[in-house]
Write a structure and sequence with these properties.
The protein has seven helices and nine strands, in the order βαβαβαβαβαβαβαββ. By secondary structure, the chain is of the alpha/beta class. The strands form two sheets. A seven-stranded parallel beta sheet has the order 1-2-3-4-5-6-7. It binds zinc ion (2 copies).
Length: about 260
């Protein structure tokens, strides 16, 4: 019987450099090797002149890059290390140094509606002062704008807005439809992110119903644990890949110098 080679991917990982994660580049990689991950990517929160507390500083970009590239060489016989950033979509605050950085991929993520950090427990009170359906609409509008900007390769945690389980009355498939259509026409890759499993919502990003839509539209996928600690490397990998398979996917995307490569997972 033919045995098919499968590839384990985890492209969404942070390090101590963002000031809200624990673990060094080496520690993360060693854990990834233990878990038999084949392609492991660092996607540190990119510098920005807004909310600087929770991210890399511009002055650290070079050191971050150097750390990852040094590790890529050091571990090249054991694992394929790739370099990226998770970039916030926030009008007027995105920087050419990040958008033009020499990386393997950029994850575009919406963590702010206007300047409200809706997924930060510190600002959860805001949820009570607004209409939930309006919040969800604004979130997907921002995500659509991020996608249409053509600046990014991967859509980070497509339905992060569900994090605290404040669910809209409107069907989420209706709210997300335009965003998914934009993803399809922009040739972006959708991330399956296990972090939601450790949040109040207790679900993978995106939900099964949105992933089914993505599959029907033939939108390619990739995988990320969104690890903020060494123990979270590969977090939820089995559940995330089985959801992808349930929906019909057999292949996922990895990146090299912003080029896509399709592998079987
Ligand atoms: Zn983070
Ligand atoms: Zn994120």
């Amino acid at each position: 019987m033919l045995s098919m080679k499968t590839t384990r991917i985890d492209l969404h990982n942070h390090t101590t450099r963002c000031n809200h994660a624990e673990g060094t580049v080496d520690e993360y990689i060693q854990r990834a090797i233990t878990l038999d991950i084949d392609v492991y990517g660092f996607s540190e929160h990119a510098p920005m002149d807004f909310d600087p507390k929770y991210r890399l500083k511009f002055e650290e970009m070079q050191a971050y890059t150097q750390d990852v590239l040094t590790a890529k060489q050091k571990y090249k016989n054991d694992i394929d290390i790739v370099l990226g950033y998770e970039v916030d979509w926030l009008q007027g605050h995105m920087d050419a140094r990040v958008l033009g950085a020499k990386v393997d991929y950029l994850i575009g993520s919406v963590h702010f509606i206007d300047k409200w950090s809706f997924d930060n427990p510190e600002f959860i009170g805001e949820w009570k002062s607004k209409d939930i359906d309006e919040i969800w609409r604004a979130y997907f509008e921002a995500t659509t704008a991020m996608v249409r900007s053509s600046k990014f390769d991967i859509v980070g945690h497509l339905d992060l807005i569900k994090v605290f389980k404040f669910m809209p009355k409107t069907d989420v498939r209706i709210l997300a439809k335009e965003t998914l259509e934009a993803i399809k026409s922009s040739n972006m890759v959708l991330e399956l992110n296990g972090a939601g499993l450790r949040k109040p919502i207790g679900e993978i990003y995106p939900s099964k119903s949105l992933l089914e839509m993505a599959y029907e539209m033939q939108i390619p996928i990739t995988f990320g644990s969104d690890a903020h600690s060494v123990e979270q490397v590969g977090f939820g990998y089995a559940r995330v890949t089985s959801l992808a398979k349930e929906v019909g996917y057999t292949q996922a995307v990895t990146f090299q110098c912003r080029d896509k490569q399709l592998v079987t997972f």
